[in-house]
């Protein structure tokens, strides 16, 4: 299975229509996130509209075990106009009338406005509390672009991982839009100050990779699999986020003497001291096997190595797939979508990690094909962001209700991220952060924020049980 299911002409007969688009490069460099000026030490990308047309290649879904240089292409989604959230209270200031001084001040103000150039295409990010943003209800979710600053990544971000430790998001791996990355370093993003930093790391630093997994365990990131180009990895690396030291842990095969095959585009969750790996692809075929890696209790030393075990599940299991997502909800691993290289899936599967029984959730309408998307649990919902729907990249936000086991519509204001897949998302302080991504021709280095607001949390069920049917 190749790490990016970009198309070959033989996999599908779908074509994509020529569409207008323009990518504008802007570089905010102020040492503070609260300025609106731009400078020259960033590679932040901003999408803007254009009336020109660009040529497109015939696109289809690429077989996960086949390589190709073709890329999926699609039009960027048009964002709604920027609006501002209302505060809980407001003050109305009356406007005086009938005085000469008022008329003079109004005339002077009008003259000043006429002499100031208009900035109709502002590239500076705007948040809901900015002064010149229109009002919007505080109970509705709101998209905005983060005013990032600091040591911004020097490359675009595609098929990377972002893991939250306290208030810091740790970004590792990925590549640019040409599937090239020589960057082995870690970047950190402070979700409170919006500052990027580029900390030094030491030890056994892993090689460049993408489509890997990064799983948090005891403030350590455990990296498994991934690859770059035609290379696939089966290695395990550990980054201690406290000491910023990389190590190669001691890992032994399971009781049957086997280890999982090298893979990428798989999923991983942490449960009861073990990392649970599902699916992915080898470059030749897609997979649907389940493995555990025992990592708890300081495992990884010669005296106490990490240990692989292949999990024998019961009942009908999902078909082989990669570029799906997996979320741990209680003791249930919820698998959504993905692709085997020929088909994209709409199905939702649940694996009980205690009984090891798979169950298929009954299909509801509408259903959505998705691969290369992200899924983030928010209370009793899974927020599914972006990805590819077997025809185009999308910027749509889907909300999957874990109680009713169906999708629900929800109003979202602001300007959403442009169409993309292979991005990363995290939930931090009642906000969903979206990092980078790829739209079939261009990869991004931007960060977007979905302010979840009261509207996202008021309907939440804090205690619930999933019942797969």
Could you please describe the fold and organization of this structure?
The protein is mainly β and 469 residues long. The chain has a domain of 310 residues: Neuraminidase, CATH 2.120.10.80. It has two helices and 34 strands. The strands form nine sheets. It has a five-stranded mixed β-sheet. A five-stranded mixed β-sheet has the order 6-10-9-8-7, with no helix packed on it. The longest helix is centred in the N-terminal third of the chain and has 16 residues. The radius of gyration is 24 Å and the shape is globular. It starts with 21 loop residues before the first strand and ends in a 12-residue tail after the last helix. This is Galactose oxidase. Keywords: Kelch repeat, Repeat. InterPro entries: Kelch-typ_b-propeller, Kelch_1.
Number of strands: 34
Class by helix and strand content? Answer: mainly beta
Give the name of the CATH architecture of the domain at 142-451: 6 Propeller
Q: For the record, give the distance between the C-alpha atoms at the N and C termini, rounded to a whole number.
A: 30 Å
Largest sheet descriptor? 5 strands, mixed
Count helical runs.
2
* Unreliable parts: 1-123
Overall body shape: globular
Organism: Psilocybe cyanescens
Region (Disordered): 1-130, 303-322
Pfam families: Kelch_1, Kelch_KLHDC2_KLHL20_DRC7
Keywords: Kelch repeat, Repeat
């Amino acid at each position: 299975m190749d790490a990016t299911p970009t198309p070959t002409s033989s996999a599908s007969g779908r074509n994509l229509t020529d569409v207008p688009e323009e990518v504008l490069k802007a570089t905010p460099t102020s040492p503070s996130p609260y300025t609106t000026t731009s400078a020259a030490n960033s590679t932040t990308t901003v999408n803007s509209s254009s009336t020109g047309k660009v040529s497109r290649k015939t696109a289809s879904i690429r077989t996960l075990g086949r390589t190709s240089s073709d890329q999926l292409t699609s039009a960027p989604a048009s964002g709604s106009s920027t609006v501002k959230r209302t505060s809980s209270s407001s003050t109305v200031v009356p406007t005086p009338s009938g005085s000469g001084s008022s008329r003079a001040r109004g005339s002077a103000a009008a003259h000043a406005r006429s002499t100031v150039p208009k900035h109709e295409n502002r590239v500076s990010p705007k948040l809901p509390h900015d002064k010149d943003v229109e009002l919007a209800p505080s109970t509705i979710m709101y998209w905005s672009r983060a005013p990032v600053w600091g040591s911004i990544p020097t490359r675009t971000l595609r098929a990377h991982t972002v893991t939250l430790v306290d208030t810091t998001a740790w970004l590792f791996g990925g590549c640019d839009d040409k599937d090239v990355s020589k960057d082995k370093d870690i970047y950190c993003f402070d979700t409170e100050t919006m500052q990027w930093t580029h900390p030094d790391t030491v030890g056994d630093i892993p090689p460049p990779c993408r489509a890997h997994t990064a799983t948090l365990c005891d403030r350590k990131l455990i990296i498994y699999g991934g690859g770059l180009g035609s290379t696939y990895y089966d290695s395990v690396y550990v980054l201690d986020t406290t000491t910023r030291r990389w190590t190669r842990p001691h890992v032994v095969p399971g009781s049957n003497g086997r280890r999982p095959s090298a893979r990428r585009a798989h999923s991983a969750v942490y449960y009861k001291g073990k990392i649970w790996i599902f699916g992915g692809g080898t470059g030749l075929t897609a997979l649907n096997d389940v493995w555990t890696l025992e990592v708890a209790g300081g495992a990884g030393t010669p005296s106490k190595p990490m240990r692989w075990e292949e999990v024998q599940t019961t009942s009908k299991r999902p078909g082989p797939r990669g570029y799906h997502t997996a979320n741990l909800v209680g003791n249930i691993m919820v698998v959504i979508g993905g692709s085997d290289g020929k088909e994209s899936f709409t199905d939702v599967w649940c694996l009980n990690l205690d009984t090891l029984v798979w169950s298929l959730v009954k299909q509801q309408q509408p259903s959505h094909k998705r691969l290369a998307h992200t899924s983030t649990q928010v209370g009793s919902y899974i927020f599914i962001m972006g990805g590819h729907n077997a025809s185009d990249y999308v910027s749509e936000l889907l909300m999957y209700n874990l109680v009713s086991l169906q999708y629900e519509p929800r109003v979202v204001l602001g300007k959403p991220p442009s169409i993309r897949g292979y991005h990363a998302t995290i939930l931090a302080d009642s906000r969903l952060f979206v990092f980078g991504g790829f739209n079939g021709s261009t990869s991004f280095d931007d960060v977007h924020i979905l302010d979840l607001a009261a509207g996202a949390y008021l309907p939440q069920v804090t205690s619930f049980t999933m019942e797969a049917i």
